[in-house]
User: Fold this.
Amino acid sequence: MNGFLEALDKLALERDTVRKRARFVAIITREMAKAGAAEPIIVGGEAVEIYTQGSYTSGDIDLKASALLCRLLEQAGFRSNGSGNFYHAGLDIYVDWLGPNFDIPGQEEVRERALTIQLGDGEYVKVISIEDLIVDRLNGAKHANDADSRMWAETLFLVAGNANIPLDLDYLERIAHLEDVHDELVRIMKGKNEPTPGGTHEDH
Assistant:
């Protein structure tokens, strides 16, 4: 634990906000792995920020992880408002704990598809797959009527193309149907080079 707290103390000196946040998650990841827990997975706005290399700016770090994360944050001096939101004034880092790491039956594939990003010096973080993130944004577009979420879903398609990230369109279509956002998926893919999900059949 002392090494964990010392690493966070050094991190407070980091001036680059993006690097500081990434290294913070890497430190937490290492500590949870040492305890035998599953690594946290970055989701939500922070994941969009990573995939877009900062074009999107998130105010907090959204993490799916076991409750051990909350205990580690409290031991590190983070203050909680009781609803999964944590803040550390010295680090100027907000963490939003979004519950267990896809442990609900049926969500195992989301966990398995998470991308591992190496930061160097043995540090790494895990980020939700770009397909799952696209569907997450489409959920916001359709069910929360958030036009910005639709725009960022479209942007993630462009990011995948520009960064040569292969999209698993079969998986993307399947989870879009499960989340009732297939119509949104078809909408943002019209006019793109990728084939329209589901071919020519009617959306339902």
Q: What stands out?
A: The first helix runs from residue 2 to 11.
